[in-house]
Each structure stands twice: as structure tokens, then as C-alpha cells.
Fold these 3 entries.
Entry 1:
Amino acid sequence: MLTVRVGCNIHFECESSATVILLVNPRFDPERPIRQEKLDFGRATKSESFVDADGNVAYRVVLAPGLNKIQHDGFLGCHKGEKSLLFILTEHAMSYDNCEDSSHF
């Protein structure tokens, strides 16, 4: 089994506190176990997780005024011949320029 590193860094700059809903975790799948995972909401004043209608783990996060940096880092297991997962991850990384994003509220 091959281990693939997945994750993202998201920066939000807020003039006042703001509530966001984030879907950053890989979907649970016994064929692709999450071997290790770290999720840091930085300066967020509150966070809670819930499962949405599609079965995804989502986070409701209250961002603090100013710059908020959120980081997700994980190691996902996949089979060496599983080209579809590697293609999706490569396309995602290329589309989002290493998954960096800055949003302003």
C-alpha cells in the first residue's frame, strides 16, 4: 500500500467575526485509510464538527477578526495501482496552486 500526503492551507481575512462551514477531510473509506491527520483552525474562536446530508464530515468554524490560517495535513493509504485517486489528487493540486487560497470577508 502506498501512502499519499494530502492537505491544504486556507487563509481568511475578516473585518469582523465570521462563521464558515469547511469540508477539508478526505471521506472515510476502509480501502483508503487515513493513517495520520492534523487539523488546525488557528485563531478561530469556536469549531464543531458534524456530518452533512452527503455523509461528509464538515466543520462549522467561527473565525476571529483579522487573518485566520487554517491548516489540514493528512496521510492517506491507497493501493499502488490506484491511478484514479492519484489523478484526482494531482489535478486538485494543480488547479489550486498547491491548495493555497486567500479569501476576504
Entry 2:
Amino acid sequence: MTAASTATSGTHLTDDGLIEYGREHNSRELSRGDTTGLLAVLFAVVAIGALALPAHRAFSLEAAGICVLCYALAARVRFEFAGGFAIPTQGVLVAMWFLVQPRMLPLPTGLRS
């Protein structure tokens, strides 16, 4: 069902109806999950492999904890628009590059959920 097919059938969707249709459509695509397990394993391998890289500055547990908390909070916010939604985690990720060792960056990013 698309907006064009509903217009030709005589049924007009309201704004709320279009938003609900978009949510259902996006959740169907996310539920396939054929490669989710493989991607999770590959991410874990890269995150553990990155720990072998040299350290450029001292590790701060407080900075890492605050970054994980901020990233988790930003990941819970969604901005809906016509084609789907956006998650504002990119700003936190940029700050993490300066606060957390680059070799440790995949770990707080992966621990957010």
C-alpha cells in the first residue's frame, strides 16, 4: 500500500495515518535481520582488534562513562520526517573522538544499548 494507491482507491490518509504507515513500513524492513548476527560478530572482532593499537593518551574511566551515557541518551531520541527518522548520535560520537582513546572508541559505541 502506498500513498498513490490509497489516493486512487478513494481512501485519503490523514497526517497521522501517513506517519503510522511510515512506522509500519520502516519496522518491517528492520525486522528481517538476516545479517544482524554476522554484523554483530564482525563489530566485536574489530572492537577487540582495535585494543591492540597503541595508546595516544591515558584512559579516563569517567570520560568513557559519560560518553556512554550521553551516547545512550542520544540514541533514544528520534526525529521523524517523511522518509523515516534520524538519530542524533553523530554529535556525541565526534565528542568521543576527543575524550576517549581512538582505539577504545568502538567499545563505548557498542555498549550504548
Entry 3:
Amino acid sequence: MSARGHGLRDSCDNESKHGASELIRDGEEGYVLERHEVGELAEKVRISLSADKKATMGGRAAIKADGFTVAKHFAALLGLYQEIMDLK
């Protein structure tokens, strides 16, 4: 998310357990890569060096990152806690 917040593309492997592969639309905001596929990584780096691709993907990444703020996270978390408290 920190890369997205600065208008940069994300990349992650498709076996990631931290959720990034679920947030990145491959080829839209960044790339989801096969793990240990160095050739694929090299190709995606080559493609993403184009100024047009950087601007397009970086812009999409920044827009998507706007939905993941600390304030929104805490609001959702507090809402969840309130739901749990209401069940008691």
C-alpha cells in the first residue's frame, strides 16, 4: 500500500499470504507474479519502464490506495467492536 500511496505500481507473488495479491489487479495497478519466475519478473519490469505504463498503473494504484486509510480502518474496526459488544 505504501507504494500505491505514492502513485507507484505494486508487485507481489501469487502465493503471498499478506493479502497484496488479492488487492492488486494484475496489469492494472501492478503485477501478480508467479513465485521464482525470474523471467516473468524481468519482463514485467521491462514493460513497466515505459512512461505511459508508469503513469497509468501508478495513477490507478494511487486511486485504489485512497480507499485504505488509517481512519477508514479504525472506523471499520470500531464498528466491528461495537457489533461484538452489542451481542453481549
